[in-house]
Amino acid sequence: MALISFKNLELSGIAVAVPSNEEYNESYEFPSEKERDLFIKTTGVSKRRKSVKHLCSDLCFEAAEKLIRKLDWKKEEIEILIFISQSRDYVIPSTSILLQERLGLSKSCICFDVPLGCSGYVYGLSIIASFMTNGQIKKGLLLAGDISSFCLNPKDKSTYPLFGDAGSATAIEWKENQQSWKFELGSDGSGAENIMIPGGHCREPFNTAQLEDEEISAGITRNKLNLKLNGEEVFYFSVNQVPVSVKNLLADSNMSFENIDYWIMHQANKIMNETIRIKCRVEKEKVPYSLENFGNTSSASIPLTLVVNSKQSSYQNKTLLFSGFGVGLSWASVILQTGTIEILDLIEL
Question: pTM of the entire structure?
Answer without folding.
Answer: 0.96
